[in-house]
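Subject: Interface between my chains keeps coming out wrong

I've been trying for a while to get a sensible model of this assembly. When I model each chain on its own everything looks fine, but I need the whole thing in one frame so I can look at the contacts. Pasting all components below, labels as-is. Any help appreciated, I'm running out of ideas.
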Amino acid sequence: MPRKIILDVDTGSDDAVAIMSAILSPDVQLEALCSVAGNKEIEYTTENTLRVVQLLKADVPVYRGAKYPLVKFLCPDRLPEDEHLEVVHDGKVVQMHSDYLDIPEAKIKEQPISAAEFYVKYLREAKEPVTLVAVGPLTNLALAFRIDPTIVKNIEEIVIMGGGYNITNCTPTAEFNIWYDPEAAEIVINSGAKVTLVPLDATHAACITLDDCKRFRALNTVAGKFIAELCEQRIIVHNATQPLDVPDAAAVHDALCIAYLIDPTVLKDVRHVHCNVGFRDFCEGQTILDMRYFTEPANCWFAFDGDRFKFADILCDLAAKSEPLAE
Amino acid sequence: MPRKVILDVDTGSDDAVALCEAVLSPDIELVAACTVWGNQPVENTTDNTLRLFDALGVDVPVYKGANTAMTKYLCHDYVEFNANKIRPKAMKDGKEVHMHSAHLPIAPTDRKPEDMPAACFYVDYLRHATEKVTLIPVGPLTNLGLALRIAPDIIENIEEIVIMGGGSKVTNADPWSEANIMHDPEAAQIVAECGARVVWVPLDATHKAVITLDDCKRFREIGTFAANFCAYECEQRIFMHDVGQPLDIPHSAAVHDALCVAYVIDPTVLTDLRHVHVEVGLSGYGEGQTIIDQRAYTRPKNGWFAYDGDRFKFVDILCDCFKRDKSTAKVIEE
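Reply #2:
Try treating it as a single job with all components included. I did that and got this:
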């Protein structure tokens, strides 16, 4: 029986790979997609999500989510600064996430209700537990939990792409998804559901290389080609701004969460720990793990490592299921 | 034409007076009541609201709302900070009296709230509204804060938001804050800056437009259920005020929430209403403070803040409403 999931995305290049993986996997039944502001503004992440669904001709409803984080931007001192390094490749500026994905504009439409409303309604009425995979800021889910905390009873597991213990990216202490809405992350981690964090420690270990991209491309399928393009774009930016241990490689964070649902052993060294999120000053958005001997009660599973070979094989398998490229 | 209104309440003694007023006023069409935690847990505020509607014999839908602040209590320091507050104890006939009883002194009800949670109701109702509606939140602003985060565009169908909360020169929960805003400062800041017309009915106004023991006598002379019930609630509040926060006028109480409804019935009940920039303090000393920009070159004005209120007009409005009550319910005094 495929596992029912709802995927929450800020599409986004690696989000696109995650969406395609979820659509193509026979082990996963994608019930809905929710968009959220994060990598890009909500208008872009919603449109991009619709584009990916349309590209694979999938029949999955898309719910537009939150435009702003819960409370972070209320304080002038917590507004984000735009300090991205500009990466130029072959005379063109390359971003980790383009505004719009380079695939046809969406003709399909989003649903008439918002993501948080959808979560509350769906989870209240669910006949069987569902797994939530949140790979952007956690705003939608936090709103839903604040509206009705009892929805947790119908959640099998929440798999979060976010955080980092030995590795961070957007500040010296924080990973972007958690940093963008720290209060929402704290609410979700402490919601009482089984929470699995897929942090940078795991996603940087389970990276995708240029050689892997060749494999995807050689499949000659719609998804294979697009995944290769997205990963190559990410490798260019990684090489310039955050080179990994493996040369010419990129983290494809969000897709690793879907791979974990297909084969949990793609995450390694998964430890049951207590995690809090820093809200302010230098530790804003930090996933703080209690490493003391007498720790506070464990509230999540935190992946410290990942298997890059297994991950690439899973992606390859999935991309092979996509329809062949037109001549 | 009566004005369409949604009340957001943490019923609550003064909330109960506000609800009676809104139900009975011919100038108001009460579309729904949303409940929220605050004076009491949300289970109690919801049950109290349902009881009161039952007693008044009206079928207004009740939507149950949030049971905690959007984000405030996530931090240990907020929780401990609040646990250390000193509150005066008021004893009457050997029993402790509270500003808000857990249960209103009226018959229990079997009525249940609607299925949809309050924040979802706001989004759903306002997105589909064919005419504008006035919102009167008189508890913590959590429900509206959540709704505005889900769908900021809902302000298009909001006529006006009349908030009971805040204080410029008068405070109650902390040296710098009023209770409703203190309970969920982030939600208050979201509402303050949402772009709708916002009218603040702060302690500066509610401590002026007070209800006295003499006014309570007037209510009792009217003799309807609403009049007797509100007299009972106001007398309890006067007792509490005399012990914990005596006002300028002896033996009187602020009945904050009801003043917001009175303003919708007759705006001149608020006097000295100033167009100002309001923002809410979010942490430390200043958490929950309604900060008014008093500078000559002020930040953009985003709300109307009432510095004074007319207590005689307020009482007249209440009496007018109470006279219209035709219910047969009874106050059940302990």
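Reply #3:
Confirming on my end. Chain B has one domain: 3-323.
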